[in-house]
Hints:
This protein is an alpha+beta fold. 25% of the residues lie in helices and 34% in strands.
Amino acid sequence: MIYRVVNEDRMQQVRDLWDYCFEKKDDPFFQYYFEEYCGKNNMVIGAFEKVGDWERLRSMVHINPYMLRLRGREELTPYLVGVATAPEARGQHAFGPLLKTTFEVLRSQNFSFVTLMPIFAGIYLPYEFSYCYYRHAYQMPLTSLSFTMGDDGLQVEREPLRQEVLAPLYARLTAAWNGVPVRTDFQWNKLLTVHGLEQVQCAVVYRQQQAVGYMLYKVAEERFTIIELLAENFAVRTRLLGYAAMHQSSAKKLYWLAEPWDKTYLGFKDQALTGSVQPFMMARCIDARIALAKLAAPQDLPEDSVVLLLTDKLIDRNNHLLKLKTAPGSLEAVSTLDAEEVTMDMGAFTQLYMGAFSAAELWEAGRLKAAVPEKLALLDKLFPKCRTYNNEYF
């Protein structure tokens, strides 16, 4: 196989493979993606096989740029999309070497993490991707969504998709969350352009002419789908859900992926409709040393240390035996020959770093080993569990 960054001469093969695996060429998203975005604002790495005088695309991954707010700082983090293998190359282990090549390219650019949204997690788990983003999924008859609307001074308005309204709300309402994409003007333009092509609607809640929440949604095929709902408080959220319930003449079912900590279901009369938390997006650390060097050490850290063995089956240079020396507001990671006290692979390290689970939870789940269990408390202070959220789809 030949692995290379795809240029325009080979982009037609990328379009053909996308058409085969994902949206078709007459789909509005396909047309936008390949006419306005792909190859201009992202990078595509392909695995090609020499067939006669021609190189045929066998597998590909698209690398889309994102800025995440990760543990109090902003960090460029590639989002892998469009991962696909041609049918004639499936079962021939074409994806693993392509992924390894992709990681080497990204490591050379000093990236420490990547994210992706899997169609089937079993493809990525062997490569030590792990679920770091979860959502509370609701699927229920729209008639079952009922709320009593009091005189709370809130007003819902259906409006055009306007960045000047949505962007300040998004920034304010997600400010305390972890792993959240920072939506620049570029990201907002991309998002709202695609939403416009897909006929996404927008409802905004106002209190005394001040926007305090919004909902992006779509009504199609008798289903009301909430694409994004952000609200200042429960009253605002309730008002938006009440607005959704008013669509019973055009939709029969509600589909909503809320934040994993959402508690709307506590007021549901039918316990069968309370939904469940489900995996949403995966992530993977590709350079643990850089990730640790960038970590802002909490001020309440004690003077202590833990010997951490990090293993990586795909990236040899990402295997480390480190002593993490801590003090208030300080972390130093140094190589050591001391016996490991805690051992974890890149999947578990990513979940810990991204704030999806505490070290104690990962240990209880068998995701890491602790020769000295008392050291888990130090890791929990160094990597406190967070409210982690991401709602980007490409």
